[in-house]
Amino acid sequence: MHHHGYLWTGPKQRFDQEALRRPPHPHPPPAGSAPDLIQRHREAVAEFPTSDLPPIETAYWLIKPRSLVRGTWDEAKEAAAWLGERLAEYAHRFAAERDRDTTRLSTLVNSVAERMESGADVSLGFYLERPSFLSLALVTCSPNRAAPELRCPVG
């Protein structure tokens, strides 16, 4: 078992495009379906696997392009340390003052390490100044507990 790290920042308006953050249904709409439903399915099939937008279900980061992996670690504590470094890097930009509290962030990183050791995925999001958003995810791989059928993007 190992862990992959993912990071996305961008306009909150883009992050809110939930339709692009959901995997396509495994079966296309039946013949005669509404044209907008057929179009949405086509878009999802084409865009979801290649989009850099964070998926709604954290495990689906594993089907995204390998280039989106920001790091890979064998140990949960190493993965949590990377996440802690990213939090420290972005903390001054957090929109909510309480999110900048270093004690709170340290406690969060410690709890992330504990969750990762149990094989769980971790996904965090923070509003940044302007209408921007930061998404951080740590995904357990080989196998993923929530979606064991998903293959490792690196190996």
Describe what this molecule looks like in 3D.
By secondary structure, the protein is α+β, with helices and mostly antiparallel strands. It is built from 4 helices and 4 strands. A 4-stranded antiparallel β-sheet has the order 2-1-4-3. Strand 3 (122-128) and strand 4 (132-141) form a beta hairpin. The longest helix is centred in the C-terminal third of the chain and has 16 residues, at 102-117. The mean pLDDT is 93.
Q: What is the alpha-carbon Rg in Å? A: 17 Å
Distance between the termini: 12 Å
Mean pLDDT: 93
* Percentage of residues assigned to helices: 25-40%
**What structural class do you assign from the helix and strand content?**
alpha+beta
> Stretches where pLDDT falls below 50 for ≥5 residues?
none
Oligomer: single chain
Give the SSE string: EHHEHHEE
Q: Which strand order spans the largest sheet, edge to edge or round the barrel? A: 2-1-4-3
Q: What is the count of DSSP helices, taking H or I runs of 4+ residues?
A: 4
- Give the beta-strand count: 4
Large-scale geometry: globular
Largest sheet: 4 strands, antiparallel
Strand content: 15-25%
